[in-house]
Amino acid sequence: MIRGFWYIAFKSTAVARGKTKSITLLNNDILVGRDREGSVFAYSDRCPHRGMPLRHGTFDGENLQCCYHGWAFSASHGECTKVPALSECDPTSPSRFRLQAYPCRDVQGNIWVFMPDGRALPQQLPSVPTVPGFVGVAPQISTTMRFPSNADIAAYGFCDPAHPAFVHTSRWWKSKSALKLRPKTKDFEPIEHGFRMKTHRLSAGARPYRLLGEDVQVDVALTLPGVRIEHIRGSRHSACVLATVTPITDGITDVHYCVYWTMSWLAPLRPIAAWMARDFLRQDLDMASKLAHGPETPPMLFVGDADSQIAWMIRLKREYLASQTEGRNFTNPLTARTLKWKS
Ligand code: FES
Ligand SMILES: [Fe+2]
């Protein structure tokens, strides 16, 4: 689990105005909420008085109140606004106490929480990952599955071209003939905290992409801590697929999968498309569940170019952790490469 990054906690619609929802992120219990005005917030789910989880308390859209001794906290800044047991002649000001806040943003249909690395928050927070061309738009499809694996294993599925032919074999996704592996050549370049598969023309075979029109072009960016953004443009429409991992604990990870598209006429087909997305993700979950029953530390062999992207993710993470320990800036260790594999 790496800190110093934004992670999706919930989809935006999961937290209504005046409501809160608790979640564990990177082993930290966090209370996410939305105030009366619609702004989102995230605090440590512990009352600073005696540690009662605030999820057991109440929220009136403005103040969170602990269920134990009734301390109240402003949802907008986390400051204590009331200590009911304090007598009028006690000079203690409730505002001395505050909840531990986490930066929280509502972006493109997801609520993101920034998990700091233990040091003071940076002056300027990194920007929340966004998909290009869908400003202020929520995804048409959004699905989350909880994987019984660490975030690395869950994220490797985002850049593992050797598995789809064996795992994602549903009829609706690829025709049977597509199971014959085809040679692929893809160019990659380093980007901030990751790498990008350069824009290339989509090969025939993946049916849903044909909805975008002719000459469908794709590029895929993969960045730490496990954010994959696929941008697909055709002659008529474009679509983006955002896939991210959110570590819950060391061995449990939420995988979020969001699809954005410009084809408004496709709205009636959303339930079917959502089912397809879930079916696709369930196939990865099935693999992760089977792996979870394997050896504690699975072998990590990287053979041929098909395994290179996972090896790159591991190098990126190693460099990030080293840069943190050594108190220096991160330097992307990757260089531009062309990879060849069969998938
Ligand atoms: S533990 Fe929350 S008010 Fe006492
Ligand atoms: Fe997969």
Plain-language structure description:
- The chain has 343 residues and is of the alpha+beta class.
- The protein folds into 2 domains: 5-115, Rieske Iron-sulfur Protein (3-layer Sandwich); 141-342, Naphthalene 1,2-dioxygenase Alpha Subunit, Chain A, domain 1 (Alpha-Beta Complex).
- The protein is 15% helix and 34% strand.
- The protein contains 4 helices and 19 strands.
- It has helices spanning 151-156, 164-167, 270-292, 308-325; strands spanning 5-11, 19-25, 28-34, 40-44, 58-59, 63-65, 72-74, 80-82, 101-102, 104-107, 110-115, 141-147, 183-191, 194-201, 217-223, 227-233, 238-249, 252-261, 337-342.
- Strand 7 (72-74) and strand 8 form a beta hairpin.
- The chain is globular, with a radius of gyration of 22 Å.
- The relative contact order is 0.15.
- The mean pLDDT is 92.
- FE2/S2 (inorganic) cluster is lined by residues 47, 49-50, 52, 66, 68-71.
Q: How are the secondary structure elements laid out?
A:
Blueprint: E1 5-11, E2 19-25, E3 28-34, E4 40-44, E5 58-59, E6 63-65, E7 72-74, E8 80-82, E9 101-102, E10 104-107, E11 110-115, E12 141-147, H1 151-156, H2 164-167, E13 183-191, E14 194-201, E15 217-223, E16 227-233, E17 238-249, E18 252-261, H3 270-292, H4 308-325, E19 337-342
Antiparallel strand pairs: 1-11, 2-3, 3-4, 4-9, 5-6, 6-7, 7-8, 10-11, 12-18, 13-14, 13-19, 14-15, 15-16, 16-17, 17-18
This protein binds FE2/S2 (inorganic) cluster and fe (ii) ion.
Fe (ii) ion is lined by residues 157, 163-164, 167-168, 284.
CATH class of the largest domain: Alpha Beta
Identify the strand order in the major beta sheet. 12-18-17-16-15-14-13-19
* Weakly predicted, low-confidence segments: none
Distance between the terminal alpha carbons, to the nearest Å?
30 Å
Bound molecules: FE2/S2 (inorganic) cluster, fe (ii) ion
CATH topology of the largest domain: Naphthalene 1,2-dioxygenase Alpha Subunit, Chain A, domain 1
What is the strand content?
A: 25-35%
Helix count from the secondary structure assignment: 4
Structural class: alpha+beta
Order of helices and strands: EEEEEEEEEEEEHHEEEEEEHHE
What proportion of the residues is helical, as a percent range? 10-25%
